[in-house]
Amino acid sequence: MKIVTILKILSYACFGLSALSLISVGIAIGFSEPAAVMAFSFCGFVSGSIGVIFSLIVRGAEIQLSSRRSIILLISFWLFMPLLAMIPIMEVNASEGWVRAYIDTISHFTTTGARISQISQLPVSFGFWHAGLQWLGGYASIIMALLVLAPLNMTAPGVHRSPFLTIEKGNVAGRIKLICWSMLLVYGGLSLIILITMLVSGVDIYDAILVTMGSVSTGGYTSYGMDYQTVTGSIGSWVGLVGMMFGAMGFALHWDVIQFRASYHNDRETVGFLFLIIAAGMLFWALGQPFLSALKNSISLLTTAAVPMTKEGFSAIPTPVILALVLIGGAAVSTAGGVKIIRFIILFKQTSMDLSKLSHPSSTNSIKFKQVLITPQELVGLWAYVLGYAAVIALVVIALGFNGIEFADASSLTIISISNAGPAYISPDGLAGDFSTLSDYSLLLLGLVMVLGRVEILAAVAILSPEFWKQ
Hints:
Blueprint: H1 4-30, H2 34-57, H3 67-85, H4 87-92, H5 98-109, H6 126-149, H7 176-200, H8 205-216, H9 228-247, H10 251-258, H11 268-286, H12 291-302, H13 319-328, H14 341-359, E1 368-369, E2 372-373, H15 376-402, H16 407-418, H17 440-455, H18 457-463
Antiparallel strand pairs: 1-2
Helix pairs in contact: 1-2, 1-3, 1-6, 3-5, 3-6, 3-18, 5-17, 6-7, 6-8, 7-8, 7-9, 7-10, 8-9, 11-12, 13-16, 15-16, 15-17, 16-17
């Protein structure tokens, strides 16, 4: 199997990480942190050099993504890039070991946002590094969804039929530049708008940069141990929530709206997303939270940013409700984690149709999404995905139990990790997203689960199949 396509795309990712490293060098210089300057410089040199080497190896080669190469690219990308991004942490805090450094990087790069390395032991500039990794990871999740998952129809039925995403299987090369640049325009433009609005609302410039990257990527970055509103203020928190909502909506839809080919109010997934936000907000209000706080926390959880928005945090919300909301997640082809709303919409449609057949056995109703017929094979794939999701959660909970973690905590950690919603976990010390007390074994397991949340369960299962490797 040729690997030139995989190396070529990985080279682009290496250059992106190198650029983030160089910007972090400037931040570290501004804070007068020589150790951080050296760490980021070394990471930039290594990642940039690997990018050059990969580029030279595949020089002149065309990008050809078969189904097999696409899945290998997806998995290798999410496992390989954190290996490079962990270099700065190892340079300044090697005493914690490579496992904690690696999983800390996986957590931020997958936009899970859980904290493994103690931020108090790291230079101030590492706040920018973590938030920057979330921003890069959010962009990467969009690109990987469009280049790999959607053409393979793994994002959910109907998503690949967006007017923007008319890609046939194995024919990605013709549109890869359009996808990357158009998504960068939308993603970067949205980030810039949110940042400027944050600054106008009075948020400190450094904090504004960090929370902007954390909101648009739905990584939920805030200063360690602080709720969102304390960092941004009341107005700034609403600005950040807008960023979370747009980040959790489909980016192919954003592009189609910009091109006047679609509208948000006619998109069923977006309408369903807004309905769930309102419904969850009303539930939190009924449970005793102030109405505005309830609405803020509803948006935060459903976008899988999952950061406590106010000082009260999620204290009035039952843990099963929190887990259910982050498990639902946002839209397909977004920065959000979770199962995705589109899958629930289609499965509810099938359930409704099956109930209707009980009264009218001879009925021949079919399931459509975006005016496109959903085939029986696609429905079987959806159920396989849901069962695979449940099976992974069950196996990981059992494995964590063998490591001495109570069932309730094991269930919360697993669901939050696979949904890429780290801050939803409140540690015994009351800190949002604090995984630092877990053992290396548990962290390795949860790190793998975070990656599974990004690569899609069926892709991971496919690579374990012997048929996958047959010529």
